[in-house]
Each structure stands twice: as structure tokens, then as C-alpha cells.
Amino acid sequence: MSLAVLYSRALSGMEAPLVTVEVHLANGLPAFTIVGLPETEVKESKDRVRAALLNARFEFPSRRITVNLAPADLPKESGRFDLPIALGILAASGQLPMAKLKQYEFAGELALTGDLRAIRGGLAMTYKSHSDGRAFVLPEANGAEAALVTNATVFAAKSLLQVCAHLSGREAMQPYNAPPFASTPLPVPDMAEVKGQNQAKRALEIAASGQHSMLMVGPPGTGKTMLAEEVAEALGMPLLQWHIKSTTKAQQGLYEYDAVSRLRDSQLSTIEGGEKVKNIHNYIVKGVLWQAFTSDAPVALLIDEIDKADIEFPNDLLRELDRMDFFVHETRQTIKAKHRPIIVITSNNEKELPDAFLRRCFFHYIRFPDEATLRKIVNVHFPGLKAALVNEALSLFLQVRELPALKKKPSTSELLDWLKLLLAEDIPLEILREKSAKKLIPPLYGALLKNEADVQLFEKIAFMARR
Ligand SMILES: Nc1ncnc2c1ncn2[C@@H]1O[C@H](COP(=O)(O)OP(=O)(O)OP(=O)(O)O)[C@@H](O)[C@H]1O
Ligand SMILES: [Mg+2]
């Protein structure tokens, strides 16, 4: 029969509704059509499926292929339908037995090589498939999260080939057993230094104990970097920091080949130097991911301000972060993580991050601290500062932040710097309290403003107030 029917899941909020993937092969001019409200990523599935099937040495049928994702009124995003579509084509073209397909549900994005890439929502989908009495087949990277569903049968596969070998009975896969970290959860970090931000702390705890990457997005000075430092300290792990600039390239996090030094050494080579030049290992500079992967003990890794780099940067790291390994072409070695690092990524939201990257991270948005939290923060940095001074300074600071014409609102770091200056200059409380037109212009406002236009704005207000 040239019709195959398989099950998969869509994601809709916290729900994971059932999707039936029907693949039909008909005679006629070769074509490949996907119907049933597919979004762009699903449409691109065609190219991935075709390449993955060919690279896995299957035959791609040169017939009219129609894939229907039902129900049609449910939007289908993401590449998770790649796996059921590919299996459906194989079953409909007689390359895979059809009999057992109904016992399973499938989700997984295919790499062009036929390897399976992580997907979003593995936990929610497994939960629903288990309650419908079916086993779930998904990418290896999602195994741990799916195994959190009690008693669910989960098969975590590396590649399309592995799934096919299992379904055809050639090489059965073992149901996924949770790795040791699930039974011995990491200690719950205590981040007492960070004031407020309870939701962010909770999100970090969950991400760390499930060994998920965590993406913290929020305005400057909300304590993102500090939270990452604290979580590492609380877990007793060293923190490797990678501060991203606009020029940073993903490759620098893996390694760099220092060809310039090698050329220079070869020109200046003495007998000793000559030996050095011959060995290419001497010119491979290890990046921060290499260090994190090869560290003997587990480490935390902070990728700070990822939005500073160009849009390709996060995409370029997807494979390494999924698979926790990379290949060094120059020395022909594979660097594989001894332990999965706890990865914390921060962003000031200056640029949008690609969906494929977002899908792989726990996401938390950090708001600017409210007044009570700001008070606590000030208290950590200036213990014992008089309450009256803190009150006046905070109310002035918040007024400045609320000024609608401001290009760059001062953040916590500016507040702390400004307070330091006020204390160093011994500015009397009365000046802060002054109720007049000048009230809007805080003393030493230069410390609060980091933008030329804002400084000019305040100079103008000060000038008007003097007249
Ligand atoms: N919740 C908090 N508790 C204690 N201190 C805080 C908190 N939030 C911010 N701070 C203080 O504010 C300053 C800025 O914090 P941090 O550098 O972590 O912010 P950030 O969100 O990483 O900012 P940026 O986006 O500019 O890098 C630090 O000196 C930190 O001590
Ligand atoms: Mg920071």
C-alpha cells in the first residue's frame, strides 16, 4: 500500500495535541507537497527529509508524494515533523514495515546527514503520548527531559537509521533510562547575594538541575551576569566566562588556529623552534567551549550578552551545544564533553535571537527591579547607608528613569556608581531634597547618563532652571 499513517504532536501553549502524519505516494510527475497548515520550518522539512534519506542510503521515491498533517486547522511549526515524514515516506514506499508504526509517536528534526537534532517540548509531548498508551521516539538530546514522565516508554535515537533499524527489527533500541543526574539532582543553589529576582532564581534552579541551557533576557543592570556567577558558586563549579562582542565568532569559542605565529616561528626557526613548528598542536588555541568540554570536573559556562554578536553566531553554535562535541580539522581530533556544562546565556535583547536557538534554551525574562528590590540591592553595596539618603536618592533616580525623552535609562550599575560618587563628594541630603525646578536634575547626573543626547538634554534643563 502506498499510504502510511504515523502519529506525532504539535505544541500549543502547554498542550501537545495529536497530529496524524499521512504520507501518500501516487503515480505521476515527481513532486513533494506538504499540506495541513504547515509553517515555514515545516515547509523546509522537504529539503531536510530528502537529503537525510539520500545520505542514509535510502531511495527517495520519484513519485508524487503528498504529506498531510491533520487536523488541518492546527498550526504546525518547527522541524519536529521531519522524522515522522521521513519514516512515512519509507513505509509508503515499502522500505520500512508498516505494522508497528501505530504503537509509537515520533518527533525529531533531521540534519542533512540523517542525524536527529533536539526539539522543543519533549516533556509535554511524551506526557500526552504516554496517556494515549504509545511509546515516544525522539532525539537523543531530548531523552532526559522525556524520561521525566513517570513510566513512559521513551526511545531516544541518534539518527534516522537507528530508528529504522529498530522499527524493522534489525537492531532494537533499549528504552531510555534516565542518566545519573536525574536520580541524583544537583544541589539547589542558594543565591542569597542576589536580591529579589525570585522567579529568575527559580528558573535557574530548574534549568541547572535538569542540565538545560538557560537564556536570561533583560535590561542592563538587572543582575543577569551576577545571577550566573552566583549559580556557579552555589553549585561549587568554576565559572568559565565568554563575553561576546560584535566581532566575536562562534569558532573562537571552539578553537583558533594561529597560522601567523606558526609562519613567524618557521621564518625565525632555530633547531629547537623547528621542532615546535612541525607540531600543529602547538598552534591550536583552545576556546572557552573546549576548556568547558575537557575540564575534569563539571563547570558552569556563561555566554554573556549573546545579542552583541551577529545573527549567525547563535546558529553557528547549535550543533556543538546539541551534541556536546566538535571536530578539530587541523589535528583531526574530536573534542567531546566529559561532562555537560551548566550553560547560562544572557542577552540585553538588542537583537532577536534565531528561533532554532531559542528552542534549545529555557527562557526567562528579567524585569528591572522594583523599588523595594532596588533598596535591598543598595543595601548590599552600601550597608548602613542612612535611610533618608537612600529614599531621596532612589526617588530621584526613578524620576530620571521615567523621563520619557531619555534615550538610555540608567540601570542598577549606574545607580550604584552614582551613589558612590554622592558619598565620595559628601553631597548633603538637602541638595537631594531640594523642591524646585532643579529637582529634576540630580547632582552629579553625569554618573547616571551614558548617552550623549541624554547628557545634552540634562544640560539644557539645567540651563533653563538657572535662568
Ligand atoms: N538583584 C540584584 N541583587 C544584588 N545586586 C544586584 C542585583 N541586580 C543588579 N545588581 C547589581 O547591579 C550591578 C549590575 O549587575 P549585573 O552586571 O549582573 O547586571 P546585568 O544584567 O548583567 O547587566 P548588563 O546587561 O549591563 O551586563 C552589579 O553591580 C550588581 O551587583
Ligand atoms: Mg551583564
Describe this structure in words.
This protein is α/β, with parallel strands linked by helices and 467 residues long. The chain is built from 20 helices and 18 strands. The strands form 6 sheets. The chain has a 5-stranded parallel β-sheet with strand order 11-14-17-10-18, sandwiched between helices. A 4-stranded mixed β-sheet has the order 1-2-4-3. Strand 6 (109-110) and strand 7 form a beta hairpin. Helix 2 crosses helix 3, helix 11 (259-267) packs antiparallel against helix 12 and helix 16 (371-381) packs across helix 17. The longest helix is centred in the last third of the chain and has 16 residues, at 387-402.
Distance between the termini: 90 Å
Counting H and I runs of at least 4 residues, what is the number of helices? Answer: 20
Structural class: alpha/beta
Radius of gyration over C-alpha positions, nearest whole angstrom = 28 Å
Helix content: 25-40%
Assess the beta-strand content as a share of residues. Answer: 15-25%
Biggest beta sheet attributes: 5 strands, parallel
Q: What ions, cofactors and ligands are bound?
A: adenosine-5'-triphosphate, magnesium ion
Average pLDDT confidence is 88
- Poorly predicted runs are 181-185
**How many strand elements?**
18
